[in-house]
User: Fold this.
Amino acid sequence: MSNTATQSITYPMSDIDTPDSHSDDAIDVALMMRVKTGDHAAFQELIERHQNMIIGTVAKMLGNASDAQDIAQQVFIRLWKAAPRYKRKAKFTTFLFTITRNLVFNESKKRSRRKTYSLEERQENNYGQIAAEASRSPDAEALQTELQAVVDEAINALPEKQRMAVILRRYENMPYEEIADVLDTSVSAIKSHIFRARTELRESLSHYLEK
Assistant:
């Protein structure tokens, strides 16, 4: 079980990829209903479909990638344990990100008294939000990498609910309604979180924006 949440194994989807289940959420729910019966193959396919998204979100939330794999594995272990009680009340990703939220917020509390990570560590652990381009000059690439590191640092300085709202909106393109479900709050509260976060980010990045 300990290795299950870190492997990337693809299984054929012919049994669920039908005209009646064309959306990603329908596929996820169909897989989860199979997981509910103890289907390991369906569970590993859910991991394959979502592990990169979860690892990336955890890394951005914590400001580094060093523990993202371990925490992501815990997310999927909790998903497996919760499967027998699973009921389709919302999108599957809402259910998955709610588990992620709980684990990340718990980890943030543990780290609240620890020294924050340096800019250099964040640069080293960055999960590659900026793709390397062959045509980009070394100076331009260095500047872009530095800017991304500053953006990551500014996001990491936000309060945790604002931080998660911004990450889910910016990187996962999640609708306000789903973010509200994940954070167990209202849509208006999410919009307020994101508005305040963007204001703070603009202030933090003003030096770069003026260049």
Summary: The radius of gyration is 19 Å. The CA atoms of residues 162 and 193 lie 5 Å apart. The first helix runs from residue 24 to 35. The mean pLDDT is 79.
